[in-house]
Amino acid sequence: MKFFIKVELIDGLRLITGCTTDREYAATQWGLGKYSAVYADSVHDLKAESIRAGLTDPLTQERFVRLPEVMQLTGISKTTVYDYIRRGAFPKQYRLTTRISAWKLSEITTWVDSRTNGCAV
Question: Which first-to-last residue range defines the signal peptide (predicted)?
């Protein structure tokens, strides 16, 4: 299958900002030269091909996430997050400023993956 991915240069990184299988949409909505064609059998293969091409998916690139996003990613409440931190069962947050704390996205996704052990319920 042929995927068309929109690639933009943002803060020095080549980021994937869109994906479609419709060439006409890519050409009309994104403009010529603003997309690349990648052949892949599935979205999983598309990610692998994109990594080989040196592209970064903004949803998976390393960044800090604040508490509301942590709660959304994990499905646990604020109280449970802080209880798990206290017990050493959840990644500790980083102090970014005197009033702002956040977590590394990679640490949260690793925690989620460790909880599921690759098994869907």
Answer: none
